[in-house]
Amino acid sequence: MIRRVVTALAALAAAVIVPAPAQADEGRQGPVVRTEAGLVRGERTAEGRQFLGIPYAEAPVGALRWKEPRAVRPWQGVRAADDFGNTCVQGASWDPGYERPSHTEDCLDLNVYVPEGSRRRAVLVWFHGGGLTAGAGRDVVPDTFARQTGTVVVTVNYRLGAMGFLATAGLDDEAADGVSGNVGMLDQQAALRWVRANIGRFGGDPGRVTIAGESAGGRSVCTQLASPTAKGLFRAAVIQSGAYDDCAARTRETAVEQGAAFAERLGCATVACLRGKSSAEILAAQGGFDWGPVTGGAFLPVQPAEAFASGAAAGVPVMNGANLDEGRLFAFGRFDAAGAPLTAERYPAVMRAAFGEEVLLRYPLTAHPSPTIAFGTALGDRMFACSALRLDATLAGRGPVYPYEFADRTSPPFASLRDLGTGFDFGATHVNEVQYLFEHFGLQSPLNAEQRALARQMVRYWGSFVRTGVPRAAGRPAMPEGGPERVLSLRTASAGGNAPSASVHRDHQCDLWDAEAPR
After folding, report:
1. Considering only Cβ atoms within 10 Å of each terminal Cβ, which end of the chain, N or C, has fewer?
2. Which of 215, 227, 241, 445 is catalytic?
3. Is residue 326 among the annotated active site residues?
4. 232 pLDDT higher than 90
5. What is the dihedral angle through the alpha carbons of 243, 244, 250, 254, rounded to the nearest 10 degrees?
6. Which of 241, 387, 430, 445 is catalytic?
7. Catalytic residue among 105, 214, 326, 405
8. pTM here?
9. Per-residue exposure over 240-269, b if at least 16 CB sit within 10 Å of its own CB, e if not
10. What's the pLDDT at 246?
């Protein structure tokens, strides 16, 4: 009841105080919108209007490094919003646009994509992936999705790696709830509060916000669902390949212990010393540590699984899924990309070392096209497929949950892998579904006619969910509601088309993996 009242009041306030969604001085100079902090000028595109690089919080630099996000200072005049903001501190990678590291801490920006028209539209807020150490809101361009679904889409930058998730005893003393290591997640909540306060001015409905993300972005969504301080900031959620490790967060003790080791690596014994290090030094020292959210404070009192079992996010509809061949990407990175493809001779020893004897027996080499793919199948089943199904079962106890599995094994590898020119069979691996929803890394995906048809269907399912909280696509099977017993398999027509499946748990050998999962 309280949540409904708060949402209604927020929507009423937006309706009373905001100007038209894209008012004023459009002409050649682009549409202008007044936010709480000042005017921003975006641009028109073939798909609608876009406003890029809008700051949602004060730059976390100097004394604000590792501080909770603060409201952005108002500005005078009209701020240009026609280019992406800075990428948060991170290393170089093979992804397009990330050939060089970023050492920029002034990066708390977001991007808004709006279809033409003035009516209030449902809103999708997208948290990017990248292992909580890489990526940016610019990684996807959702303007076509926004037009096709009639929604407003917001993509968000948030602090990463040590900058976003360092916990130390000294930082605990500074944290409002006495638990440090969560500022990257608090950035996401600050962005959601910006959306609640401002999105009505862009044509969005602050009472109809869905959060979504893939990989680490999906894990972020899972974490925000479990966070009491996120309550009321969204009404629905999409978790794409984000349930790995059962959405588990670090304990306070573990996080502080890791933080002490990190500080020692930099030769620091105090927070002041750490703040005195350059961002390049911080980045160089962060390798080998587990960066992620921390339990024990007001932001995340308990582990997400425990929170959901106790009714957290009750009534919030959730779409949750994984890809059929998630682990192939990681197996490729470990073996083939390193110039040492896994051989049949090495396979038994590698499998025993990674998973144990029983897993080796359940994943015989003869059942798979190659040793690398066999290893990747076991890895993907353990990390993604079965953890997603366990999350479905847990979530089903507190509200609607809609399970899916992206199963197009003909899907092209995503942009950075295509550029490698490898002949590796990635199948429906990690990240591959993103290009069916959005333009990825600013590149047009080379989908064939069948894949484009599947992409249109997926856009309809996702768009319906954002608008109504129920994923439907005209002429296609409904996405089943409930636990892991029935999962919608997303496939091209020649592979059988979209169809509910009752065998996903068995196909991924989840009886084996569930037995070792934390209770």
Report:
1. C
2. 215
3. yes
4. yes
5. 170
6. 430
7. 326
8. 0.93
9. bbbbbebbbbbebeebbebbbebbeebebe
10. 93
